[in-house]
Recover the amino acids of this structure.
């Protein structure tokens, strides 16, 4: 019955739309997608009872729509009830003294459990499918090579054929460069600070200090990114601007430095907690061996512990990079919109995630190259972070086995 | 056997010589440095957190109060109940704004005379300012026909003025005796002491600062000019060469030269005009005559004899200007009974004109202005007017979205965890599922938005911008976290419990559901709460599925269009009005409070029920 | 087995490795401990331990599990400092200098007193780097060739060089258990310590590797003072010249190895040696 609902959901409205449009006289038929949607809205309005001021053809179509819609709803109800009744009847037949209820029940339970487990797979499949599908549709209209290697990003599409500005450049290199620039700034902040705080907490800190420091980092990790974005845009960016211009630099009001700095702080807890786990996993016997040689704590950490923990720390950094690259809100609020290809942190750049959001928010025709390019960007983003995550997680797993 | 000469001692290592001591000291210094880096890192994180929180709290403070002005309003029947029914429904639809405006205009009759000033005066009241009044009369229709004193909400700018955000108001009491020349229109005021000297100095300082700034701009432009001129010369050279050797390039190079020429000319023009303005300003503040004031310098007002004069020309002991509020008499004002008021933000930089400030100062002096807690913030939905905007809509939207997320992700997540941990055979397929889940936990959240857009909105045709779809998307986002946390909780239950249950004849499923799961529940719930807290703060995926529209009505259920709190914060942060900035910060504080409570609950749960097996 | 045969066999083993001239003459005490008490929090692990450790000889600490011999060993190079809550009272001197003196540099101490642990713990570095670690951090080698010389000499002294000479760049963790332990010994002697502490160095090794290590210890005692903790009485009898018996945190008896094993003065020692407990 669930499957019935799921299948019914998308198809019934489509059917009703189709029948209503088909019933319109030829001269009122919509010529293209945009008008089609507008017509449909009018028709639906009539069907909902607001028939004032609509043309007679629309009124008639509205009645047809209403008729088909109620047919669909009644149909759903009837078929659903019938199925339910059938199911109940069948179950009743089954019940009897010899019925191994528990076994049946448990089989059903097992099926439910398996189904739930496959939701994760379905999600990934769904992501890949939907994003890939739209990406391929995009590449049908715009060459993939130009997208991946083009240097000009100005996404425009024509609403009408003759509109000026109908040529859009979808070269994504400025976006990749912007993402990389902000990611580098963020890692420059988060890497050393996260690693050193992890080292301090794992090796030097007394229990009291650890009890204070860990919550601080956890709080930092729990702050929503939109709050960081607000802070970056309204406080950090103007501050950088003021100080930068006082020093004589030309600083944009949406500098990459502001966004990167705040993003770096957001990632610190990430790097710190992962590194903390990894450093703690290094066996004490190695440290003892080093202390026994007369090494100081710093020497032991630098020359024995960190090299031993290196694969794990590298993978922690990779996961942090993946997080930085995929982050949206901070850059949307604090970084710019123009596809500026530069590595100067004082200028405004835009990133992949900002463009995905910009292209898809607002009144968009779902089929236009603009919207589809967002999916193409999403695909690149997903692919890149997936690769990073797979490698990083595999390294962490192998590393953990080595010391267990 | 290896050969070791028994007699030869290993090379003596000298560890106590000076060189060795120095080396050791150096090593200890390196140790101390290293340790210091660690402490510095943690302190940096702490400092940033403190900076962040205090900045937001400071920004949020203005949002928690609202200023109202008390007016004596004639609750007349013609406006409030034209049909005379006396029924609350009819009264509620009456015109409550007109009586308020009448009351306000009664305080400033001169302003009411002219249309422009009347409109400005009416603009001091919020568009939702009639709410209080309406509530009173609808609750008690017998009030119609009487005169009521009602607090009326001020508009955004007026409210901000009383919070000190629009401009600093500096009032100096007059030390001398002031003699006005007239009661209204153009007025000259003479002071027996040089009461205006300070203000004149202020003006001159402001002018000189402006001139300096302009000179700085001019310098910057001159630098640019040099660059552009150099580029132009190069381009011209290229053009000349091309004319000779590469005629095909000529049109393109001509275009380049033309563009550079026009750019350079415009920069030169800017330099000229800015230089001229700066020069003009400089003549002002070097001179010593009467200082004319315009809207680009701080405003000067004189409060005297119950009226306010806006100064258009000032010298040390004499000012001339026009009245904003007519004086009650042209008598001398004794020392200490009149004031010189400086508004430090120039009129051109503010949204309130001097006239409006004068009215507001008068209302304040009459004791009509009261400040109350901003309950509207929690009881109303979004609004275009900053003073009326509230988070109730966003809170309800978040509430419904969280419910949907919880209902979907908790059962599915726990079920999947149970299967993977207890029942799944160790084969390649379950490996794939596990790798999948770990990867999904690290996928950027905006990708889930893309998924929601493509599949839930487009393929399934679910309604946009509803908590239903938002909850679905967030459920998928949070699912891996819940699965991983639940698996860890299940793993932590020792096998002896399972074995004991199986020993008494329970089936595997019964053992899991009746014995293992209840013991793992605290861990499961902790993971769920943490996942929910994460979902509460998520913004990006919800933007993509449309929860970004301007929604005024409070949603009634999961299928009404809604927005969520983080998205509301995002939308407000974009708006230029200063009032919205404070509201954004206040909304952030509400969000952080919720998160604090949720995370605190998760931690207490974990501590209370954590069992050491 | 009866008492007499055990004593006879251990006595025979002891005399086989005894070098008469060095053992009969009383050797100068390198490490002197007086009235040492060690506490872990409130629990007392060692009570009033006093002992003289002779120079250039092997002293073994024996006793049942948990009797405090490892704890005492770790006092001598102050490794107990790394354990939270551990408190040491009393005096331990090396060559007359109090090692718990506040002015003493513990880093320097640990260069003079080396340690080999129960489970071989080579660093995850190359064989060369493992041995070079100590000289590097203490700044003992002035040039690269100096360093190479130190490493090669140490490996030779640890009887490991022949086996690894053509794979010095390979990771130390790739060696067998016995080789790893010899690597740790080479690492320890690379800084030319005066005393080497060994905490049950052979308990994780097979008999053949154990035999090799015991041989090595016998060679090393010509130049180093060695203290070895062992739970194998046979090993103690084979390898050491002096033996100290610990029981429940108390040093019960100290003496020449063959005397302890053939004619113990204390009944508890007698009981332990004959296998009544432990």
């Amino acid at each position: 019955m669930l499957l019935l609902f799921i299948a019914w959901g998308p198809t019934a409205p489509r059917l009703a739309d189709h029948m209503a449009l088909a019933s319109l006289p030829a001269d009122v038929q919509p010529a293209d997608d945009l008008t089609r949607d507008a017509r449909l809205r009018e028709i639906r309005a009539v069907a909902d009872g607001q028939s004032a001021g609509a043309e007679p053809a629309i009124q008639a179509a509205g009645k047809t729509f209403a008729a088909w819609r109620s047919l669909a709803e009644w149909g759903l109800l009837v078929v659903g009830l019938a199925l339910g009744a059938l199911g109940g009847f069948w179950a009743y037949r089954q019940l009897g003294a010899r019925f191994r209820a528990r076994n049946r029940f448990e089989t059903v339970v097992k099926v439910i459990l398996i189904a739930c487990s496959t939701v994760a797979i379905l999600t990934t499949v769904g992501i890949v499918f939907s994003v890939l599908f739209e990406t391929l549709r995009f590449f049908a209209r715009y060459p993939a090579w130009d997208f991946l290697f083009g240097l000009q990003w100005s996404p425009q599409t024509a609403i009408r054929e003759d509109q000026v500005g109908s040529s859009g450049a979808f070269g994504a290199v400025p976006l990749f460069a912007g993402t990389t620039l902000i990611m580098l700034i963020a890692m420059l902040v988060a890497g050393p600070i996260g690693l050193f705080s992890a080292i301090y907490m794992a090796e030097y800190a007394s229990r009291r200090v650890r009890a204070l420091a860990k919550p601080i980092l956890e709080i930092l990790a729990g702050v929503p990114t939109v709050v960081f974005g607000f802070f970056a845009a309204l406080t950090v960016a103007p501050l950088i601007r003021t100080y930068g211009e006082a020093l004589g630099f030309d600083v944009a009001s949406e500098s990459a430095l502001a966004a990167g700095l705040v993003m770096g702080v957001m990632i610190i807890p990430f790097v710190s907690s992962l590194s903390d786990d990894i450093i703690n996993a290094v066996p004490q016997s190695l440290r003892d061996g080093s202390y026994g040689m007369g090494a100081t704590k710093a020497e032991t950490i630098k020359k024995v512990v960190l090299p031993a923990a290196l694969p794990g720390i590298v993978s922690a950094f990779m996961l942090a990079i993946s997080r930085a690259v995929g982050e949206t809100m901070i850059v949307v609020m604090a970084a710019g919109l123009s596809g500026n290809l530069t590595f100067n942190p004082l200028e405004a750049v835009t990133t992949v995630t900002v463009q995905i959001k910009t292209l898809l928010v607002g009144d968009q025709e779902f089929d236009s190259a603009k919207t589809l390019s967002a999916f193409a960007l999403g695909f690149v983003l997903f692919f890149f972070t997936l690769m990073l995550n797979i490698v990083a997680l595999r390294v962490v797993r192998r590393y953990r086995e080595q010391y267990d | 056997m290896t050969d070791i000469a028994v007699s030869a001692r290993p090379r003596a290592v000298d560890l106590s010589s000076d060189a060795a001591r120095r080396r050791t000291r150096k090593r200890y210094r390196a140790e101390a440095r290293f340790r210091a880096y660690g402490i510095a890192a943690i302190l940096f994180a702490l400092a940033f957190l403190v900076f962040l929180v205090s900045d937001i709290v400071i920004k949020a403070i203005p949002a928690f109060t609202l200023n109202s002005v008390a007016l004596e309003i004639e609750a007349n029947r013609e406006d409030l109940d034209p049909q005379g029914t006396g029924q609350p429904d009819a009264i509620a639809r009456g015109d409550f704004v007109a009586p308020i405006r009448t009351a306000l205009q009664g305080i400033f009759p001169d302003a009411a005379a002219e249309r422009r000033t009347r409109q400005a005066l009416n603009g001091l009241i919020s568009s939702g300012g009639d709410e209080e009044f309406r509530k009173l009369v609808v609750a008690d229709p017998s009030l119609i026909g009487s005169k009521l004193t009602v607090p009326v909400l001020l508009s955004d700018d007026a409210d901000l003025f009383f919070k000190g955000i629009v401009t600093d108001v500096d009032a100096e009491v007059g030390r001398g005796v002031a003699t006005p020349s007239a009661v209204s229109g153009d007025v000259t005021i003479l002071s027996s002491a040089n009461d205006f000297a300070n203000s004149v100095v202020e003006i001159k300082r402001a002018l000189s600062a402006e001139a300096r700034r302009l000179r700085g701009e001019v310098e910057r432009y001159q630098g640019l000019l040099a660059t552009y001129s150099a580029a132009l010369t190069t381009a011209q050279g290229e053009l000349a060469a091309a004319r000779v050797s590469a005629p095909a390039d000529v049109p393109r190079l001509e275009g380049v030269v033309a563009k550079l020429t026009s750019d350079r000319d415009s920069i030169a023009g800017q330099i000229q005009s800015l230089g001229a303005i700066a020069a003009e300003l400089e003549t002002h503040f070097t001179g010593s005559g009467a200082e004319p004031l315009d809207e680009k310098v701080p405003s000067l007002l004189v409060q005297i004899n119950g009226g306010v004069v806006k100064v258009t020309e000032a010298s040390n002991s004499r000012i001339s200007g026009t009245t904003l509020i007519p004086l009650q008499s042209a008598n001398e004002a004794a020392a200490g009974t009149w004031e010189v008021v400086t508004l430090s933000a120039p009129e051109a930089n503010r949204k309130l004109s001097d006239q409006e400030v004068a009215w507001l100062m008068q209302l304040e002096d009459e004791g009509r202005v009261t400040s109350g807690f901003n309950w509207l913030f929690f009881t109303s939905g979004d609004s275009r007017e900053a003073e009326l905007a509230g988070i109730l809509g966003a809170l309800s939207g978040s509430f419904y979205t969280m419910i949907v997320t919880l209902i979907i992700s908790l059962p599915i997540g726990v079920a999947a965890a149970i299967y993977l941990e207890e029942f799944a055979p160790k084969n390649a397929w379950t490996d794939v599922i596990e790798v999948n889940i770990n990867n999904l936990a690290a996928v950027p959240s905006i990708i889930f938005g893309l998924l929601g857009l493509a599949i839930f909105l487009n393929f399934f045709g679910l309604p946009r911008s509803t908590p239903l779809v938002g909850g679905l998307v967030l459920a998928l986002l949070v699912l891996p976290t819940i699965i991983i946390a639940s698996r860890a909780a299940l793993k932590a239950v020792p096998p002896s419990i399972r074995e004991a249950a199986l020993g008494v004849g329970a089936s595997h499923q019964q053992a899991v559901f009746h014995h293992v799961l209840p013991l793992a529940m605290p861990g499961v719930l902790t993971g769920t709460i943490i996942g929910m807290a994460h979902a509460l703060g998520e913004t990006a995926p919800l933007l993509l599925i449309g929860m970004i529209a301007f929604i005024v009505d409070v949603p009634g259920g999961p299928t009404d269009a809604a927005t969520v709190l983080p998205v509301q914060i995002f939308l407000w942060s974009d708006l230029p009005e200063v009032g919205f900035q404070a509201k954004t910060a206040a909304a952030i504080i509400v969000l952080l409070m919720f998160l604090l409570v949720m995370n605190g609950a998760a931690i207490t749960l974990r501590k209370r029920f954590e069992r050491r097996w | 087995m009866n008492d007499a045969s055990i004593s006879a066999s251990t006595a025979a083993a002891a005399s086989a490795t005894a070098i008469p001239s060095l053992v009969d003459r009383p050797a100068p005490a390198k490490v002197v401990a007086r009235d040492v008490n060690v506490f872990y929090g409130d629990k007392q692990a060692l009570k009033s331990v006093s002992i003289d450790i002779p120079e250039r000889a092997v002293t073994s600490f024996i006793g049942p599990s948990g009797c405090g011999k490892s704890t005492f060993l770790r006092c001598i190079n102050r490794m107990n400092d790394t354990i939270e809550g551990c408190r040491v009272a009393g005096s331990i001197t090396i060559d007359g200098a109090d090692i718990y003196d506040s002015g003493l540099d513990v880093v320097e101490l640990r260069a003079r007193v080396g340690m080999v642990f129960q489970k071989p713990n080579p660093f995850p570095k190359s064989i060369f780097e493992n041995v070079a670690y100590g000289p590097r951090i203490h700044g003992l080698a002035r040039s690269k060739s100096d360093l190479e010389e130190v490493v090669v000499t140490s490996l030779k002294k640890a009887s490991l060089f022949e086996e690894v000479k053509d794979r010095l760049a390979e990771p130390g963790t790739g060696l067998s258990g016995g080789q790893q332990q010899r690597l740790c010994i080479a690492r320890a002697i690379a800084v030319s310590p005066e005393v080497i502490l060994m905490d049950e160095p052979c308990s994780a090794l097979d008999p053949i590797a154990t035999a090799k290590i015991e041989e090595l210890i016998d060679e090393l005692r010509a130049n180093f003072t060695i203290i070895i903790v062992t739970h194998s009485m046979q090993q103690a009898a084979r390898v050491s010249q002096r033996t100290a018996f610990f029981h429940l945190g108390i040093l019960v008896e100290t003496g020449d190895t063959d005397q302890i094993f053939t004619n113990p003065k204390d009944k508890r020692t007698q009981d332990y040696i004959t296998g009544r407990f432990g």
Chain A has 14 helices and two strands.
